[in-house]
Amino acid sequence: MASTSSRMVASVVVFLLLLAASARRAPPLLNFIRAEMGTTRVAEARHRHCFSQSHKFVGACLSESNCENVCKTEGFPSGECKWHGIVSKCHCKRIC
Q: What pTM does this model have?
């Protein structure tokens, strides 16, 4: 009898932990509903970003600002350094 009640308590605790963890990250629809109800939270648009390795950047990418400037000369709005094994390379970024 004691083991059944302890299992029940453990199940309730796990359920409450899962509920608390999921409440921290609201789904986009819930954000939209909150925005429609007049709260201060605004529904944010989520964009996917596409990356392309820079053709003009030479050497290891150690400076995000250098990478971004080179990517702008290639027609991209921004760029960032990404690691490939032991080498960091400049990747240009745009919204897909």
A: 0.51
